Amino acid sequence: MSDRVLAAIDSSQFSEGVCDYAAWAAKALNAPLSFIHTVDNHAQVAEPDLTGNLGLGTREHLLEKLSGIEEEHAKVSRERGRLLLDAAKERAVSAGIADPQSLQRNGTLVETLVENEKEVRLLVVGKRGETAHQASGHLGSNLERVVREMHRPILMVPKQFTQPHNVMMAFDGSKTARKGVEMLAKSPLFEGATCHVVIVGAETAENRSQLNWALETLREAGHTAEGAIRAGEVEETLRTYKQENDIDMLVMGAYGHSRIRHLLVGSTTTAMLRKAQLPVLILR
């Protein structure tokens, strides 16, 4: 059953934010919370070419030592993961979560998440993992693959938690985008927050009709909703609206075939996610 908030943690600087946003989401959704940590033991060390390395011992002896080092490394990685999971559970309990669970799995992060997605209502991940480049504009390759392969909503979070009060959704009026508005309207995640709906395009009767539908859908579900139609380049227009309205969370859809989709599921890492300093909820 898809009812669980699943938070993927590692030893990166984003893990505290993952814990705090996951606890917030679990309480808002009245859903159980689980933390997951993966230990990737699939990395292969290339066999060394020892031809001519006189005095360094036999080839078999060196390979045996390398194997022992890899086994020890795996043990250390598992123990580190266990400590991270224990710390995450303790942090969640202090935030009011009654019985957080923890899972440790061997394998790659993406494969593990896809295998467990049937149980997931919301996946919470950091913008970058422990092995990613630390430049502020870098988006972890794991996250990019997760967005492409998961079929559950994904909350990408920054390092520090901020209670969302102004949420912005990019909207293009397509059938799948309307489905996203309906998902947002039904979710208790943003109860008490103002939902902003922004169409990037010309001020036409069709766009105005689409915006009115979105606002009415949100308001009928009990949300405070505001909206705008803005002409311009998508990324720049959304960024300007975000700054003008103190937006503290973005909601976007990885669906359809519009310009909004290409922000999220293009052939290269998208500028919108790379530059985002706010949490981004990606609807599927």
From TrEMBL:
SUPFAM superfamilies linked to this entry: Adenine nucleotide alpha hydrolases-like
Annotated ranges, domain UspA: 1-158, 206-284
InterPro entries for this protein: Universal_stress_UspA (IPR006015), UspA (IPR006016)
Top-rank taxon, per record: Bacteria
UniProt record similarity statement: Belongs to the universal stress protein A family.
PANTHER family, per the entry: STRESS RESPONSE PROTEIN NHAX, UNIVERSAL STRESS PROTEIN UP12
Protein's UniProt name: Universal stress protein
